[in-house]
Specification:
The protein is built from 10 helices and 13 strands. By secondary structure, it is of the alpha+beta class. The protein has 2 domains: 225 residues, Hsp33 domain, CATH 3.55.30.10; 54 residues, CBS domain Like, CATH 3.90.1280.10. A hairpin with a 4-residue loop joins strand 4 and strand 5. Bound molecules: zinc ion (ZN). The site of zinc ion has 6 residues, from loops. Zinc ion (ZN) binds next to loops.
C-alpha cells in the first residue's frame, strides 16, 4: 500500500450497539506537512499523531470552520500545532529548540514540560471556543480521551500512530443511553478491548475495511462514506499583510530601509510573500513614500 495515495477518513458503527467509530489513514497529506522542515524522525512521528488526531476531531465536531490542536510547553518543543478546515484541508507545524539533540523516542509529557493542549473550534460565523487539556498522560491519545470526556461527556478511546510515511488513527465513542439500542450491555467493553489489540503496523498499513474485519470479524460493522483529506494551507497575501502590519510602523519602516521590502514566508506551506513600500503605503501613511 506504500505507493498508493490514501488520505481517507471513514465513519463506522456497530449494529445493535450504541458505539460509533472513525478511522483515518493518511500518507501524502501527512508527508506534505512533514517535508516542509527538516524534522527529526521522532518529531515527524509526534506531528503525525497530531495530524491523525485533528483529522478524527474534524469528523467528530461538525461545524463550518477551522479546528486546531495546539501543544504549548516549556521543554525543547515550543509549539506543535495542526489545523483542519471544513473542506478537509490539513496543515501542521512543530517548532523546537534546534540546538538540542532530539531523542529517538519522545513522550509528549517530557517534550512539553508542564505544557498543555489547546483545542480550538473557530466557526466561520460565531463564537470561538477553546478547550484546554493539561498534559498528564504520556500520549496524545490519553489527552484526547480526557478532552472528550470533559467536552462531550461521552466515554471515548483513541489510538494513534505515525511512522514518517503514514499516520493513522482509530476512534471509538459510546453514545448517550437514549441512543442505545436494545440488548448489548457489554458492547463498549468488548469493542474497546478488541481495538486495544491493534498493532501500529495494522493502524498504518491496512485499509479501513480490512482493519475492521481483522479487529471485529464477529461483529456487525456498518461502514459509511469515505471522505478524502488533503494538505492545504489557509494563508493568503491579505492575511500575511495583516500579520506584517502587526509589527507596527516603526519596525516596518526599518525593514523597508534595510531590505527595500518586507518579506514573510508562511511557516506552514513555505509560500513566500513580499510587500513593497507601495503595498504598505496606506498603512504607513504618506511619510513612507518620502522616507
Ligand atoms: Zn501557507
Amino acid at each position: 500500500m506504500n505507493n498508493v495515495t490514501i488520505n481517507e477518513i471513514q465513519r463506522f458503527s456497530f449494529d445493535n450497539s450504541n458505539v460509533r467509530g472513525e478511522r483515518v489513514l493518511l500518507n501524502d497529506a501527512y508527508q506534505e506537512i512533514i517535508k516542509r522542515k527538516a524534522y527529526p524522525l521522532s518529531l515527524e512521528k509526534l506531528l503525525g499523531e497530531f495530524v491523525a488526531a485533528i483529522a478524527l476531531l474534524r469528523d467528530i465536531v461538525k461545524i463550518d470552520g477551522v479546528l486546531s490542536i495546539q501543544a504549548k510547553g516549556n521543554g525543547f518543543l515550543s509549539t506543535l500545532m495542526t489545523e483542519c478546515d471544513e473542506h478537509q484541508n490539513l496543515r501542521g507545524i512543530a517548532q523546537w529548540d534546534e540546538s538540542q539533540e532530539v531523542p529517538e523516542s519522545i513522550s509528549l509529557k517530557e517534550v512539553l514540560e508542564g505544557g498543555y493542549l489547546a483545542i480550538t473550534i473557530q466557526p466561520r460565523n460565531g463564537q470561538r471556543y477553546q478547550g484546554i487539556v493539561e498534559i498528564i498522560g504520556d500520549t496524545l491519545s490519553e489527552c484526547l480521551e480526557q478532552y472528550f470526556s470533559q467536552s462531550e461527556q461521552l466515554p471515548s478511546r483513541v489510538w494513534l500512530a505515525a511512522n514518517g510515511a503514514q499516520c493513522g488513527g482509530l476512534f471509538l465513542q459510546r453514545l448517550p443511553e437514549e441512543q442505545a439500542k436494545e440488548g448489548d450491555e457489554d458492547a463498549w467493553e468488548r469493542l474497546t478491548h478488541l481495538a486495544s489489540t491493534v498493532k501500529e503496523e495494522e493502524l498504518l498499513g491496512l485499509e479501513t475495511s480490512e482493519l475492521l474485519h481483522r479487529l471485529y470479524h464477529e461483529e456487525e460493522v456498518r461502514l459509511y462514506d469515505v471522505k478524502t483529506m488533503q494538505f492545504g494551507c489557509s494563508c493568503s497575501r491579505q492575511r500575511t499583510l495583516e500579520a506584517v502590519m502587526s509589527l507596527g510602523s516603526a519596525e516596518i519602516r526599518e525593514l523597508l530601509i534595510e531590505q527595500g521590502s518586507v518579506k514573510a514566508d508562511c511557516q506552514f506551506c513555505a509560500e513566500k510573500y513580499e510587500f513593497s513600500e507601495n503595498d504598505l503605503a496606506d498603512f504607513l501613511g504618506d511619510q513612507a513614500k518620502t522616507h
